[in-house]
Structure formats: C-alpha cells, structure tokens
Design brief:
The chain has 198 residues and is of the alpha/beta class. The protein has one domain: Rossmann fold. It is 49% helix and 14% strand. It starts with 20 loop residues before the first helix and ends with a helix.
Length: 198
C-alpha cells in the first residue's frame, strides 16, 4: 500500500529523479543508518522552529521501526557552498552516511553572490562525494519574501535554482526542488484566499 497525498496540502514535492540505492541497501540490512544534512540556517534551525533534519528523523524512524535512523544536522547559519565544501571531509565523509542532503543557494541568492563561485564549490563538493557508498540529494533555495521581492531578487533566486539543477544533472544526482514546492504552496494559499473572499 502506498502513501496517499494529503488533499489539504496545496502542493506536494516532485519525485526525485534517481532511486536512493544506497539508502535502500542499508534499509534491507541491519544496524543504524546515518543521513547527514549539510547547509546553512534553514538546516541548522533558527529560534523556536524545529529544523527539517529533526523532523525528517522522526518521520523516518516512525516509518521504519524498529530501525535506528539518525539524521545528523551539520547546518551552520550564514554559510554557503564555498564554506560548506571545506567541511565535507570532517562533517560528511567521516560519518559514512547512507545519504547526504546538501542545502544550498538561499544565502547566495539573497546576498547576490557571484553564481560562478557557487557553481565551482558545488562541483568541487560533488566531486568529493562521488563514487562513495552514499546517495546525494541537493536542496535548492527557499521561496520566501526576502528572495522573491523585488523582481531583481526573484530573478537571482531563479538563476540559482537553474544553476543547481544544471550541476545536479551533469553529476546525475537528485535535487529536492524546495523552491518550486514552496512557490506552489504560496500560490495555492493565495488562490484559496481569493476564493474564500469572493
């Protein structure tokens, strides 16, 4: 039996392009499983909002009981790919995870950083991760007011989303399309608000 989407949620994430083979193999075996979440503040967490690595861990442990699945949070607020790539050896490879989720692009787009530096760092990091017994999932930027207003910010964010997609396609790794998902949520909620007010 497959999980059915919740109809009360205005949009659902796009399917990953590639199967998570290493995660599937470890789930078929025994022993604890590690997932490393690398990224900036939306990975690390801010204030009283629980960050996604904790939520993901709870969901996976519940779904795959009694297996122990640890989602290790390696987020650092304010960092971007050029800083994060320097931590891959110690914060990712040393943990021997089944999956690494690398959240990138939000800080770079917001600060209007040179996309070429992000592309180079991302390619470097994926090179370090390639050929190892782990699945790789890139997570693109958030769709939030600071990134989509004014229009020049939206253009920078969309360019970053496309850059990440292009690098991922070349490396044949997955992208969790967070920007598109959050945009669909926003547009769905706006549409429902219009219907309710008429």
């Amino acid at each position: 039996m497959t999980d059915q989407p919740n109809p009360d949620i205005p949009a659902h994430p796009a399917a990953l392009q590639f199967r998570l083979n290493h995660l599937a193999d470890r789930l078929a075996g025994s022993g604890p499983i590690k997932i490393v979440a690398l990224g900036s503040s939306s990975t690390a967490g801010r204030g009283d909002v629980l960050p996604y690595p904790y939520r993901l861990e709870v969901i996976l442990r519940d779904k795959h009981q009694p297996r122990i699945i640890n989602v290790i949070n390696r987020g650092r607020g304010g960092e971007e790919a050029p800083d994060e790539v320097k931590r891959i050896a110690t914060d990712v490879l040393a943990e021997n995870p089944a999956v690494v989720i690398w959240q990138i692009g939000t800080t770079a787009a917001w600060q209007r950083r040179d996309p070429r530096t992000i592309e180079a760092a991302l390619a470097d990091g994926l090179g370090q991760l390639a050929g190892r017994d782990m699945d790789i999932v890139l997570m693109d930027p958030q769709f939030v007011p600071a990134l989509v207003q004014p229009p020049v910010m939206l253009k920078a964010a969309e360019q970053m989303v496309q850059l990440i997609a292009d690098v991922a396609a070349k490396a044949r790794v997955n992208v969790f399309q967070r920007f598109a998902l959050m945009r669909a949520w926003h547009e769905g909620e706006a549409s429902r608000s219009i219907r309710w007010s008429t």
